[in-house]
Amino acid sequence: MPVPVPQQRAVPAAETTHGADLTLLVIEDDPAGTIAVPELSSTAGARVRVRTARNLTEAGRLLTDDVDCILLDLDLEAASLPTGARADGRDEETGRPDELAALKHILRIAPRHAVLALTAEDDAERAAEAVRVGAQDYLFRGELDGRLLSRAIRYAVERKRADIAQHQLTESRLRAQENARLERGLLPTPLLDGSDLAFAAHYRPGRSRALLGGDFYDTVRTPDGTVHAMIGDVCGHGPDEAALGVELRIAWRALTLAGLCGDDLLATLQQVLEHERQSEEIFATLCTVDIAPDGRRAGLCIAGHPAPLIARQGRAAHLLPYEDGGPALGLLPHARWPRRQVQLGGSWSLMMYTDGLIEGRVGEGGTQRLGQDGMVAMVNGRLDQGLGGEALLEAAVTQVQELNGGELTDDVAVLLLERDEARIRRKGRNAMRSRPSAASPAVAQRPPS
To answer: Is the pTM higher than 0.85?
Structure first.
């Protein structure tokens, strides 16, 4: 029967205490016992306890959690390998005898233990190969004394500890990179081909080192020329809320492209939320706007979400009406969300945002919230400076953070849609000029008689 691999502890003993006693497992099969392990001690006064195994099967039984280091004789007979562990001691690729078969077996069953290889003085090449395979160091039999062995054990244990820490760090970095790629891929790509509207967005999750939070947004243009925009917020700040936000965003895009809007769309989204949420206490706020193809009017639906802000040319920014809004998604079964028509005008900027933008602290001691009125005043100040697009959003979020006195703890999502009627007219005139002149109609020729 194959020797069971002993369960490895999460943290080797040497990782927990410096200067503590260590345990050495010596594996050698010389019946005469010619490998003499000298009396071992450390400079700190701690002792090194020694266990001896005559074969790898016995070593498997003695390899307990309190073993810190293994001293393996590389001349261990291949016959000592347990059944099923390459019992013939031959290399799998070349078929020749594998001089490191015993070492490879030990490295497999003790991946978190330090290993020292023991060999003859004239076998330096095999000793170096043992280190390349995975041993922490090698020793020659003729040089084996207490001081050298004690120092080698301490060095091997610390080197193994450093190797494990580096491996864990590398795994953590790779996992973080993979998560970043995944989260970045889940952020929306607006579908606005053919639209005259300008789009900008700013997204900042509240979770440390995250790219995705519970806030979500999206913008698409349907074949009839209508531009649909949405922004929402799942209550909470963890990865589960972020995942639910992605699900709702994707569902919104699919339903919008399928032709739903207003109350029908929100009612369906509520069903999605109810099926996908982890708890009945989870809800989501949402605001949707569908802008007519001419860009001058829009339909507005609010589900417990802050009302959008609109700035028309030559006028101060203000909030759109929100009195007709409905409850947040997931709060009330069979709820309704009226769709309100609003006039936008010729040139305008429409800003949609989540409550992370307005819940930052302001004033001495941070006792007050910025609130919607404070946000409107702040945005008007930036508009007076001539800012627009991404520059406007970046400046607004930065100022909110400065007023808060540090990083915002809540997710923040802001999107901006803008229509510049003068630019659209110039674009139309330039398009007319660039068209080739119509060719004169050809004179029909009478066929010969």
So the answer is: no
